[in-house]
Write a structure and sequence with these properties.
The chain has twelve helices and 13 strands. It has 341 residues and is of the alpha/beta class. The chain has one domain: TIM Barrel (Alpha-Beta Barrel), CATH 3.20.20. Bound molecules: flavin mononucleotide. The site of flavin mononucleotide (FMN) has 28 residues, from strand 4, strand 6, strand 11 and helix 11.
């Protein structure tokens, strides 16, 4: 229904406008009673899908990746589509506009997206107001820094998001891997990253009920940098890694180089990212001796793609671009396939 009826219509319009339109439609349809229908169409409830990871019980291993519901406006409604967990954010301490439009592009031939949203969000405090209302799904809080905050002061941005969200999310994701905030990815270097994660761990351990803290990494890291990540996870004692964010690479695209050039800077997601992200998952899993849980994300557009990530060493998976191209039926397909292996 989505892929053959809705998608061809939606894909005629500007991607960012379609994003907000879809939000409004999902909210409206849920408000007038379609939530139950969505649940019966898309949800797979089976105890064999449950996963206990970093102390949390996930009803199934398929989650929505960060960036879709940045401001925690739709996670309740989205849970009807069968996601086992939903990651909100990236949130920053202060609201910010993000980059000028146009900043979101479909590469249909490649079943991909390029985005340079630049952490557009309404700020962490606004999201907290919405998160205070009852939650019906596991929620991860993905946190970042404001564009105007220099890297030397980034710690205070991550800390204030951590404190503001602490009582309202189930796990945290430290995002230092978006390509759309100038210099952000420099925070992936060993020294600043260890310092930042240690600080968050310290604050976390002061709480009565510490929350899992994960690190989200870029697919563009070298093997040496990935080895550093393994060391950092061990040294700082964080709970796991999300691999991966979008890539700055444009290798192997079907879309004409002219068009790709015209689109310009941004992070590429979707099918062309699939193999690299799986490679990163496999590398981390093998070289660390499966020392920590990995959430696998990048280019999952079919049940087979998800199984491949799990086989490579991921414990849970997430999707974003596959959800746009394949629709909500993909979540059920993945869960069914997991049940059949
Ligand atoms: C439009 C868009 C916005 C995104 N925003 C964020 C974000 O704010 N924070 C983040 O950690 N990842 C963000 N991502 C990255 C996704 O969470 C995911 O890691 C990446 O897209 C790879 O998965 P996919 O191929 O299934 O889309 C964004 C992706 C897209 C397409």
């Amino acid at each position: 229904m989505y892929k053959f009826f809705l998608r061809p219509i939606l894909f005629n319009f500007d991607p960012e406008k379609v994003h907000y339109f879809t939000f409004r439609m999902i909210r409206f349809l849920t408000a007038i009673g379609f939530g139950g229908l969505f649940r019966s169409m898309y949800k797979t409830e089976d105890p064999r899908l449950e996963r206990e990871v970093f102390g949390l019980k996930f009803p199934n291993p398929v989650g929505l990746a960060a960036g879709f519901d940045k401001d925690a406006k739709l996670f309740r409604e989205l849970s009807n589509f069968g996601f086992g967990f939903i990651e909100i954010g990236t949130l920053t301490p202060k609201a910010q506009e993000g980059k000028p439009r146009k900043r979101l592009f479909r590469l249909k031939q490649d079943q991909a997206i390029i985005n340079r949203m630049g952490f557009n969000n309404g700020g962490v405090d606004e999201a907290v107001v919405r998160l205070k209302k009852n939650r019906n799904v596991l929620v991860g809080g993905n946190i970042g820094k404001n564009k105007i905050t220099p890297n030397e002061e980034a710690e205070s941005d991550y800390l204030s998001c951590f404190e503001a969200l602490f009582d309202y999310v189930d796990y945290f994701v430290v995002n230092v891997s978006s390509p759309n905030t100038p210099n952000l990815r420099a925070l992936q270097d060993k020294e600043p990253l260890s310092k930042l994660l240690k600080l968050l761990r310290e604050k976390n351990s002061e709480k009565n009920n510490p929350k899992p803290i994960l690190l989200k990494i870029a697919p563009d890291l070298s093997d040496d940098q990935l080895m550093d990540i393994i060391d950092i996870v061990a040294e700082t004692g964080i709970d796991g890694v999300i691999a991966t964010n979008t890539t700055i690479s444009r290798d192997g695209l079907q879309t004409t180089s002219n068009l790709v050039e015209q689109i310009g800077a941004g992070g590429l997601s979707g099918k062309p990212l699939k193999n690299r992200s799986t490679e990163v998952i496999r590398f981390l899993s093998e070289k660390s001796g499966q020392a920590f849980p990995i959430i696998g994300v990048g280019g999952i557009h079919s049940a087979e793609d998800a199984l491949e990530k799990l086989e490579a060493g991921a414990t849970l998976v997430q999707l974003y671009t596959g959800f746009i191209y394949e629709g909500p039926a993909l979540i059920k397909k993945i869960n069914k396939a997991i049940l059949s292996v």
